[in-house]
Design goal:
Length: about 240
């Protein structure tokens, strides 16, 4: 259970529609059920670690990109000051939201997005005198974890999109441990993921995005957990149907 003091001191309290902005509710992104629910009611963001889970197309990346944008972070990864981009594919969701912050403390923040890490590494490598010129010399997973250790530090608001993508089973366990340490340091972390391993972090909040909208669920009730259990127990029953 999250302590009351930690809950009160979380950097970001919620996101909600900016009343001064007109929203096209018929746009493709606004019609995703989970996003439509946020446009209607807003979203409270708990303290500690929050996982966003759901099928492809359920709105996880759309939401995590919007959280980055409304917080002033580069939507392709990095800090507020990062200036790198490949091809703009983000929805305008971040531009129609406003963020409700907890006042009184400076907030560190960073966004790691697995699919755009190569571009982020290159951007950081090209910064004159920067400390991150070695990331391309590492494997994808090693670079990801190294950058996380360097940029996700202490009290702050941090975002990750599918961080398990470059990681082995053992490295994913290492990431889970890092998330626990960040939470203990007062960090607020939101992670979009397909990983039943990561979402097993005790005390984390799990929000499931689906055709029904967005709801809080327990780890044991996640469809992905049930699917992996059945597959690992009897892979042949799945493969016969597929192959």
């Amino acid at each position: 259970m999250v302590a009351v003091g930690r809950e009160a001191g979380r950097p970001i309290r919620r996101v909600e529609v900016d009343g001064a902005v007109e929203v096209d509710r018929q746009a493709w992104w606004a019609r995703i059920p989970a996003i439509a629910a946020i446009l209607e009611r807003g979203l409270n963001i708990p303290a500690g670690v929050t996982f966003l889970v759901g099928e492809n197309g359920s709105g996880k990346s759309t939401l995590i990109e919007a959280l980055a944008a409304v917080h002033g972070l580069n939507p392709e990864g990095g800090s507020r000051s990062a200036r790198h981009s490949t091809r703009e594919t983000e929805s305008p969701l971040g531009s129609v939201l406003r963020v409700v912050r907890t006042p009184g403390r400076a907030v560190n923040s960073y966004f790691l997005r697995a699919e755009t890490m190569h571009g982020l590494y290159t951007y950081l490598e090209d910064l004159p005198g920067g400390p991150d010129q070695d990331l391309h010399d590492r494997s994808h997973g090693e670079g990801f974890l190294e950058l996380l250790d360097r940029k996700f530090r202490g009290y702050g608001f941090y975002l990750m999109d599918e961080p398990e993508a470059p990681l082995s089973f053992t490295s994913t366990l290492g990431l889970l441990s890092r998330l626990d340490g960040l939470r203990d340091a007062g960090a607020q972390v939101v992670v979009a993921t397909h990983s039943p391993l990561l979402t097993a972090l005790p005390g984390a909040t799990i929000l499931e995005l689906s055709e029904a909208g967005i709801r809080k669920v327990a780890w044991g009730d996640l469809e992905i957990v049930a699917h992996w259990r059945r597959f690992l127990d009897r892979p042949d029953s799945y493969l016969r149907a597929l192959l």
